[in-house]
């Protein structure tokens, strides 16, 4: 299972990002690690994204262009997953870009037993991992849901064989939650590496042209997915991550309840919130995320007094 010079498949879902697309694709093309393919899935763009993407496919045989109807980011990514030829898979959003050693650092973090390598999330101030370090599954999910590495796919590199039966749920937002829940069942302890290399992925926080992922009351599905993940983690006795995912879900539900106008969705969110709050370990979470915990306790007290 040697990783030396193994091919990497980049999956790039594209929807109306012509102001950013060239910079994004250039950053992939100019990687110091050059053994890769780029699967560009155009999710029904109506701007000049198609012309830009096709120009890369014409001039570089490693770039492949696929056109689809506008069915959303998950659908586009799933098409990419069905077409990959590499031993490793990386996801890049088309309005973001990579530093030149993005891929090289991740590949170098792999040994024969590694299944996933992840950078820290761009905004994290967590500095404990000064060198690449293998972690347990419990730590992996804890670090994702506490924001240290984030519940995103674009700062991670996956060994392709673990994603053979893993797909993103289509037609919803927060699709990464279910994606990682599926991965939970195909990885073991110390098969994930966290790499402390800052700013290797240039993340654009203002995203005007991303695939379908705008606010919708149906985001409540994300909370349900997290609840299912908590149940799976409990069954597998991942006690630390159970608490962290529980807290993350409560924070999400708090914000959802405060923002959503639809009465039925609000009631459903309150029901899930009350159930999860009853089982949260406040003592443990005080030492993990005290600010998050404080916001939840205050919100709970306010709800009870209304």
Give a brief description.
The chain is built from 11 helices and 10 strands.
List keywords for this structure.
43% helix; 10 strands; globular; alpha/beta; two-stranded antiparallel sheet; 14% strand; 306 residues
Q: What does this molecule look like?
A:
With 306 residues, the protein is an alpha/beta fold. The chain has eleven helices and ten strands. It has helices at 21-29, 49-59, 73-83, 102-108, 137-145, 175-184, 220-235, 239-259, 263-277, 282-288, 290-305; strands at 8-14, 36-43, 63-68, 88-91, 97-98, 116-119, 133-135, 156-159, 192-195, 201-202. An eight-stranded mixed sheet has the order 3-2-1-4-8-6-9-7, with helices on both faces. Strands 5-10 form a two-stranded antiparallel sheet. Helix 1 (21-29) links the parallel strand 1 (8-14) and strand 2. The radius of gyration is 20 Å and the shape is globular. Residues 208-215 have low confidence and may be disordered.
Topology:
Blueprint: E1 8-14, H1 21-29, E2 36-43, H2 49-59, E3 63-68, H3 73-83, E4 88-91, E5 97-98, H4 102-108, E6 116-119, E7 133-135, H5 137-145, E8 156-159, H6 175-184, E9 192-195, E10 201-202, H7 220-235, H8 239-259, H9 263-277, H10 282-288, H11 290-305
Parallel strand pairs: 1-2, 1-4, 2-3, 6-9
Antiparallel strand pairs: 4-8, 5-10, 6-8, 7-9
């Amino acid at each position: 299972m040697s990783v030396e010079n193994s091919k990497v498949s980049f999956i790039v879902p594209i929807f109306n990002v012509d102001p950013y697309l060239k910079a994004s694709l250039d950053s992939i093309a100019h990687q110091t690690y050059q053994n890769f393919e780029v699967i560009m899935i155009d999710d029904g763009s109506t701007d000049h994204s198609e012309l830009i993407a096709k120009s890369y496919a014409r001039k570089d045989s490693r770039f492949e262009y696929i056109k689809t109807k506008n069915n959303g980011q998950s659908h586009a990514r799933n098409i990419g997953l069905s077409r990959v030829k590499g031993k490793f898979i990386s996801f890049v959003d088309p309005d973001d870009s990579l530093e030149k050693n993005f891929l090289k650092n991740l590949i170098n973090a792999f040994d024969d037993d590694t299944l996933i390598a992840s950078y820290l999330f761009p905004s994290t101030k967590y500095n404990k991992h000064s060198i690449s370090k293998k972690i347990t599954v419990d730590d992996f999910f804890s670090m994702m849901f506490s924001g240290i590495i984030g519940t995103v796919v674009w700062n991670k590199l996956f060994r392709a064989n673990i994603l053979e039966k893993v797909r993103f749920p289509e037609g919803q937002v927060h699709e990464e939650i279910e994606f990682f829940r599926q991965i939970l069942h195909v990885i073991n302890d110390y098969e994930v590496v966290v790499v402390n290399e800052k700013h290797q992925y240039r993340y654009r926080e203002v995203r005007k042209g991303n695939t379908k992922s705008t606010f919708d009351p149906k985001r409540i599905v994300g909370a349900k997915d997290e609840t299912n993940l908590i149940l799976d983690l409990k069954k597998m006795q991942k006690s630390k991550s159970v608490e962290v995912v529980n807290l993350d879900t409560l924070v999400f539900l708090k914000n959802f309840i405060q923002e959503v106008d639809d009465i039925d969705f609000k009631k459903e969110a309150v029901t899930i919130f009350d159930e999860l709050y009853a089982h949260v370990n406040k003592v443990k979470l005080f030492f993990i995320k005290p600010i998050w915990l404080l916001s939840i306790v205050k919100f709970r007290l306010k709800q009870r007094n209304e």
